[in-house]
Design a protein that fits this description.
single chain, alpha+beta, four-stranded antiparallel sheet, 4 strands
């Protein structure tokens, strides 16, 4: 079995879009957590920089990520998020060979 794949996304949103962004994120996260291969998915807002969000997804394999992206729920979220962000989000896919726990 291959190592899990981690997807990290960072975005800053405009204050007036906070409610719409949160609602769309909740819907997408709930649907994504039911997908085959999704091990975990959560999103966090910075307490020192309100409006700055980081999401972390953990998938069994890269192919699960690739199947997830064109699904209706992430596409709907990306459309809403696109109207909320101040700049394009930064999205990274990490395929670790090992993880050291501190």
């Amino acid at each position: 079995m291959s190592d899990p794949v981690i997807v990290i996304a960072r975005a800053r949103i405009r204050p007036e879009t906070h409610s719409a962004f949160i609602a769309a994120a909740r819907d997408c996260i709930a649907a994504t957590r039911r997908e085959h291969g999704c091990l975990a998915y959560d999103m966090h807002e910075s307490i020192t920089e309100p409006g700055y969000f980081v999401s972390v997804e953990r998938w069994e394999q890269r192919e699960h990520v690739d199947r997830h992206l064109p699904q209706p729920h992430p596409q709907a979220f990306l459309e809403i998020a696109g109207a909320c962000v101040t700049a394009p989000p930064v999205i990274e896919v990490v395929e670790p060979r090992s993880v050291d726990r501190l």
